[in-house]
Amino acid sequence: MKQSAFILLVEDNEDFRLILQEALETAGFHVTPAANATRARESMATGKFDLTILDVRLPDGNGIELLREFRQSDPDMGIIIMTGYAEVDTAVDAIRLGANDFLKKPFDIDELLIRISELLKNRQLKNDNKTLLEQVRNQDRITGLIGQCDAIQKLGNTIRLLANSDSTVLITGESGCGKEVLAKSLHKSGTRSSKPMVSINCGAIPEELLESELFGHVKGAFTGAVRARPGRFEIANGGTIFLDEIGDMSAKLQVKLLRVLQERCFEPVGSQQSIHVDVRVIAATHRDLEEEIAAGRFREDLYYRLNVIPLMLPPLRNRGEDVLLLTNHFLSRFNEEKGASITGMSEEVKRTMLNYQWPGNVRELQNLIERVTTLKRVGIIELEDLPSRMISDKDRVLQSFQMDMDNAEGIDLKSTVDEFESHLILSALQRFNWNKNQAANFLAMNRTTLVEKIKKKGLQPTE
């Protein structure tokens, strides 16, 4: 793999320094050698390094003192300490002072390269997460929305344009997309932000109770109404009311809501006295209201009253790398809430998350990250931490056939590939109860070829 990291190599032994420098440059690193502490300080003052490899004993100073200085001047730089056998205690102290790793001389060059690769990989992962979190914070401060895809950027621009508007807004999108988050962003960015935003889910409350919830009631209006109670519209006076799942509202209440939108007044249940309100209305639905109108379930005149400013939230599957931005946002949030330390995701997890369809959208992602931070607590998210429904057949097969390449002395490629092929064929046959036609279709191969391979490999059903 091609490297591009810049390394400061501090070693007073010239022969050993040249050996290390040649090995590192052969591996593709940019190396700046320093034979003593003075040259190391000069190099640090004039350059920026990803990693310093530092000997403890130097002719004009102590490597531990250099470690303190370097860690103070560049907290993010990686530092590997080299030490002799008698200095192991000193190296342990160096780790406490901020060194990332240490190697006891003499050591194998390949071991050094492995340590460097792991350190730089973890450093890059932290930098990526830091960048993503900064993007999240910057955008969240402006609009409350998290995402870099075109649709979210356009919504952010629209929120800014609507900052001084009281126009009614209709938000559409699948369940779990974040319609209430968008509604809160509209409220916070507007002139009514100092006033209350009152939310109500019109699909979660029975019709006989929803009218009282929206418009309030007077004492004695119905059995159990022992005192007067204001409705959500009255409570939201001066601010914003968010009517979630407006498409589930009954025809009777649609008529009353239409009047509120037209005249900004209503009568509480059991009263003939009108109450006037100054309130901004934001409505949301996962339904296609034009289809609902065609089916006779939603009033066309109410639709046009609501659809003054239409906003559509895209499903998470259409938002590309926003999945990773949102993942890091939720990791930061739940790490803090639960005292966990999940630092990121493996590359396999990133690929899986980007390819997954997310039927539950952002809500499903949020629940997943909360579950992982609660149960795993530390480390990075690996493929085995994800629910089985998220893992593709390809990833599942590869996950079940992983090999320990780092510790293997050697691999017989032909026999390993043959074993892997047998594993795939047998798994497919077992999945389809040894129906060879279905197994061949699943493996995208000719049935005759499959039968020949079964005979050649001696594969048989398990008893």
Automatic annotation (TrEMBL):
SMART domains for this protein: AAA, REC
MF-aspect GO terms: ATP binding; sequence-specific DNA binding
Residues bearing the modification 4-aspartylphosphate: D55
Listed InterPro entries: AAA+_ATPase, AAA_lid_NorR, CheY-like_superfamily, Homeodomain-like_sf, HTH_Fis, P-loop_NTPase, Sig_transdc_resp-reg_receiver, Sigma_54_int
Keyword NADP: no
UniProt keywords, alphabetically: ATP-binding, DNA-binding, Nucleotide-binding, Phosphoprotein, Transcription, Transcription regulation
Gene3D superfamilies: 1.10.8.60, 3.40.50.2300, Homeodomain-like, P-loop containing nucleotide triphosphate hydrolases
GO BP: phosphorelay signal transduction system; regulation of DNA-templated transcription
Response regulatory domain boundaries: 6-120
Domain Sigma-54 factor interaction as annotated: residue spans: 145-374
Family matches, as PROSITE patterns: RESPONSE_REGULATORY, SIGMA54_INTERACT_2, SIGMA54_INTERACT_3, SIGMA54_INTERACT_4
PANTHER family in the cross-refs: PTS-DEPENDENT DIHYDROXYACETONE KINASE OPERON REGULATORY PROTEIN-RELATED (PTHR32071:SF117), TRANSCRIPTIONAL REGULATORY PROTEIN (PTHR32071)
The protein's name: Sigma-54-dependent Fis family transcriptional regulator
